[in-house]
Design brief:
By secondary structure, the protein is mainly β. It has two helices and 29 strands. A hairpin with a 5-residue loop joins strand 24 and strand 25.
Length: 380
């Protein structure tokens, strides 16, 4: 068995560039009011959040002194924070994204002030476009406040390097990611792929390009049959593994995931050093855990909520007795850490699982060799 110990892409200096833009949603602002369901982005943490509180509606603004916000059955009390988002221009007196406060509410309208209970704001000049008002208590609330914000995972650019296999980075035609491992990183694993080709390029600042290989993900299923070559469904590998990157410390590794004419997708990207931990015996097993649930009704009908699934692998290792102490301590040190486990590289992606081991037992049955039994739970 070989293990690939991934280097954290979030470590300083590891991430170099990506052609996937990080513009999923607007940046979070502490001075803006958000409605429930509205999403924002924390670019520094590469995370998306969704507001859990607040309401929004298209409103009309009456030019007057004080100005009137017309919102049918708004239900907002005096002092409630409110912000405005126009498709055109707001009248003079209001600024898009700024926070104001409900003043003198009636069932279908209210005035606004710059402070709670302050003077009503007059609206002058002209306006254009459609105006949307958002009202709620989540102004000036940090994204870490779980009362007001719900984490929705990584941004599109960073989904391929988060902790989950079923969250995919997507981009038309190709995804190009450049990393600088700052370590002897011989292995690359890509999971949950939807692509036709992977190209790996490793460039050393002194030696130049030291490695460049293109790998087709298209699998031949014809079996030398013209009929099957013409009519069989084309099959693609959904994972990729390379264990032969040159032993350079300062290389920049560029990973290009190409899908011409389609959407390139990648759910997991791991790069790091590799290490052999014993030999894998035959009888390696693979299955998966489906996290979907089915609810049965009294009449026998059912409703299924489809969710992700995780791969699982069980295997037995043979380890020399003079290495068993190190192997045991090494695996104990990797508990609860996401690792790429390669049971037997000769069998391709079938024996590769990215996840954590859930059980490990070592026995010494002979003078020269020991056995280690492992159960590995893949990431969802």
């Amino acid at each position: 068995m070989i293990i690939l110990d991934p280097i954290a892409v979030s470590d300083p200096g590891v991430f170099v560039s990506s052609n996937v833009p990080e513009n999923d949603y607007p940046a979070h602002s502490l001075t803006k009011v958000y409605a429930a369901g509205e999403r924002v982005m924390n670019a520094a943490a590469h995370l998306i959040y969704e507001s859990k509180t607040g309401v929004s509606s298209v409103v009309t603004l009456s030019i007057a002194s004080p100005g009137v916000i017309n919102w049918t059955a708004h239900g907002q009390a005096a002092g409630t924070p409110v912000s405005f988002a126009p498709t055109g221009a707001l009248p003079t007196g209001l600024v898009a994204g700024a926070t104001y406060y409900v003043l003198s509410p009636t069932p279908n309208a209210f005035n606004v002030s710059a402070t709670v209970g302050g003077a009503a704001i007059a609206l002058t000049g002209s306006q254009s476009g459609v105006h949307t008002a958002s009202a709620g208590p989540n102004v000036n609330k940090p994204l870490s406040d779980v009362t007001y914000w719900l984490s929705k995972g990584a941004t599109n650019r960073w989904k391929m390097v988060d902790a989950y296999n079923n969250t995919q980075t997507e981009r038309a035609e190709s995804i190009v990611l450049t990393l600088k491992p700052q370590a002897i990183a011989q292995g690359i694993y890509l999971g949950n792929l939807d692509a036709a080709e992977v190209v790996i390029t490793s460039t050393d600042p002194a030696a130049g390009v030291v490695y460049q290989q293109a790998f087709s993900l298209i699998v031949s299923s014809s079996g030398s049959s013209m009929y099957r070559w013409l009519f069989n469904r084309r099959r693609r590998r959904t994972s990729f593994l390379a264990l032969d990157l040159p032993l350079y410390y300062n290389t920049a590794v560029t990973i290009a995931i190409n899908n011409p004419g389609g959407i390139a997708k990648c759910g997991m990207c791991c790069i790091g050093p590799i290490e052999e931990i014993g030999g894998t015996e035959y009888s390696l097993g693979r299955d998966f855990k489906d996290w979907s649930t089915t609810k049965f009704n009294f009449d026998g009908t059912s409703e299924t909520t489809e969710r992700g699934y995780s791969k699982r692998m069980s295997l037995d290792l043979i380890i020399d007795n003079d290495q068993i102490e190190y192997a045991q301590e090494r695996m104990e040190g990797l508990r609860q850490k996401t690792i790429v486990y390669i049971g037997a590289a000769i069998y391709g992606g079938f024996t590769v699982v990215c996840g954590k081991f859930s059980s490990l037992k070592t026995v010494i049955p002979s003078v020269t060799h020991s056995k280690m039994a492992m159960q590995i739970e893949g990431t969802v």
